[in-house]
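Problem: given the chain below (86 residues), write out its structure.
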Amino acid sequence: MRRDFRGGTAGHETEIVDGDLADIDSCDAVLADFTAPDEGTAMEAWYAHSRGVRVLVYTGGTPPHPWTVYVAESVHPLLGEAVAAL
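Solution.
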């Protein structure tokens, strides 16, 4: 499901989060972009991990946070490597 609020997310929090959680529940794997800190991506990765959904991460070379390593099946500096691991 695509939810595009073009920066106007206020008032749509429940719709956004419920939709994201449903998307994760329908996946076999999540490819997470941890090239920069992002609390939404961190929450999604944790949720996927807690549901037994594979989490693969690419960092763009940024050293991964310990929580990222904890929830990830594998961590890759390059996007192509993470995609190949799927």
